[in-house]
Amino acid sequence: MDPISLFMIAILGMLIYFMIRNSRKQRKTQEELQEKLKPGADVMTSFGLYARLLELDDENNVATLDVGKGVLIKVHRQTLTKVVEDEPSEVEASTEEATDKSS
Q1: Which CATH number belongs to the domain containing residue 48 in this structure?
Q2: Burial class (CB in 10 A: 0-12, 13-18, 19+), 88
C-alpha cells in the first residue's frame, strides 16, 4: 500500500471517530435536558423566549408555558432548548438599562 492510501484511510477513521463522538455528546445533552424539564422550571425556547414550564404533554409533544401575567402559550416540545437558572433576570435587567438609556 502506498502512503497516500494509508493517509486517506487514517483520515476516514478519524472522521468516523469524531462523528460517533459528536453523536454521543448530543445524545447526552438531550438526556440531561429531558431530566431537567419538569413543570415549574424556567426554560428558554429556540427562538429566545424565556418562560416558566407549566405542563408537558408527552403524547402530543406540546409544552404549555407561562410567559408572564397569566399569558399562556403552547409550543412544540422540541423548541425547549435550555433550562435556565438566573439568565432571565439578567436579560430583563439589561433590557431595562437599554430602555432607560434610550429615554
Answers
A1: 2.30.30
A2: middle
